[in-house]
Amino acid sequence: MELTADHAELMQAFQQGQRTALARAISIVENRRPGFESFLHALHGRLGGAHRIGITGPPGAGKSTVSAGLTQLYRQRGERIGVIAVDPTSPYTGGALLGDRIRMNELALDEQVFIRSMASRGSLGGLAVTTKEVADVMDAFGFDRVLVETVGVGQSELDVTAAADSTVLILVPESGDSIQAMKAGLMEAADIFVINKADRTGADRIAREVQMTLHLRLGHTMRSVPAHHGVDLKRARRAAKQGAQQGDRADHRDNTGQHWEIPVLQTVAETGQGVDKLVEALDLHRDWLRNSGELSRRRRLRLAERVREAVERRLRERIWQEGPGQDLLEAALDRLEAGEETPYSVADQIVRGANGG
Amino acid sequence: MELTADHAELMQAFQQGQRTALARAISIVENRRPGFESFLHALHGRLGGAHRIGITGPPGAGKSTVSAGLTQLYRQRGERIGVIAVDPTSPYTGGALLGDRIRMNELALDEQVFIRSMASRGSLGGLAVTTKEVADVMDAFGFDRVLVETVGVGQSELDVTAAADSTVLILVPESGDSIQAMKAGLMEAADIFVINKADRTGADRIAREVQMTLHLRLGHTMRSVPAHHGVDLKRARRAAKQGAQQGDRADHRDNTGQHWEIPVLQTVAETGQGVDKLVEALDLHRDWLRNSGELSRRRRLRLAERVREAVERRLRERIWQEGPGQDLLEAALDRLEAGEETPYSVADQIVRGANGG
Fold first, then answer.
1. Nearest CB neighbour to A342, from listed B44, B309, B318
2. ipTM metric
């Protein structure tokens, strides 16, 4: 998997930390330009330094504001931050809504912050796959944290959060109606809950509902939660410290008894209130991930998933772009519509055709 | 694509209209049991009779209640109704929340109504693909309407609605915050808008917002909307009638000037208020689909998509189940984690291995 001369030059600039090289590298990966896989291949050895934080939740929950707040606090610690904002997009027009990113725009003037808005190409899974690989590029560039901000509660957003080390689910007091619908999906992907806009009425109530739901559901899963849970950072802090004291061998011991207690925090991101607690919870979660062996487990799952995606991309390209698939499909459309063929008989022909070819 | 003896027997019972045969057929397709494609192949000639209606919107909007209301009115006309309720599900536990379906349970006692709750298997795209094929089974069984009820605003839900002839997007007065986020995706998939729970304050305001958004965005797409639009069923009725008068040749003429005006209706589905207008709007939309040639266009797109899915399913099975892909992947995991290999070099090996095999 050799780099082209162009890409080799780009890689040099990238390794020197040039922002324009980062922007170009992201475009290559995001737009699946020729050679993008060789580029990712060449970057692979530089991965693993960044803490990848997924920030998700229903529309209007304040994800951008929370991202901006986190970024500001991380910057005060001198960290370098990459932000990927995934906007909902239209399968019809291909256009994306960029939303209001006023705070983010201020941060964007900071040389140590890099913000990229992304739009799905409308292909099933396209959003999730590309986002993960753009996060790889940012990781390889040397950011300390890569924030991935996604809207929505759908399957592809779940896949984006599955690619994060730590997933923050943001709700608002008004999200009560949604909890019932969300708990089966997103709620189990969340490592940390945030009730944002907590100065509105109902914040305590929804926090309690979330805690009850966590208790009822997660008690039966791998992330089982002890009887007392919720906003108990002290306890989580203690657990993380214990893990840390056991040192590097932590990931070799039996972790059966050591679970992450999912905190349910309250913030008013607009004023910055509570965002420091979120920073703290994220630090604790990262410590826990490392010390419990969970980080390694999640990364292995991710690598396997990445291989699967790359294999299936090759297979698709071979049949639809290099092979005769598209021509065979178009030739069959009239017969399909007339009912003389079915999608399954046509698929057989196409797969056979690709084999013969 | 021969049916097994078992499936041939099942197909007979299915063709005789036995509900137990329908339930078994759906299970075969939903669970991808061996031979499910041959079964779908055998059903293909019976497709096309049902009006497929997608009902979507954010959690808590009242989709089930609207579905139930529609079903009741369709039953009063003597129609046979199939309902597919797609519940959000967990990628971790595989469990689905069935929600409260009290009204639906009453309807379920009606022999002419068949309700199926479905859960995604957690695989990317699994939800969308399976739902469409279950809708095929219901269509082939002879239902007049197949309602597909999906929660959420994600990509896979969009794919489900793309499989419907008519898509209804349900909002509530409280959805104001969400419109900004939704308009790029779901809003353009909608053929009809419903503001449900319209007895709450804010219903008129959100109806206006939707209309404004439709005007701003859709003015630039294939579904361009004239200056005066909105709750104008009379006008839509006139357009549909004009189409109908032009008879069967309607789909051969140039439709450039003939657009569907997206109605924005208000309902209180809890009491049934306004649901009759939705029935009327759906009838008009179906007439328009037929007369404008759009139905044929949408169905051709769907057939092509179905072929693509079937081809890619074959390719995936060949490499991961029949081929050596999974073994090669597992053998590479340690080297991947150690950074000695990258997902892209491993993918190359797997694709080469599959070719050689």
1. B44
2. 0.77
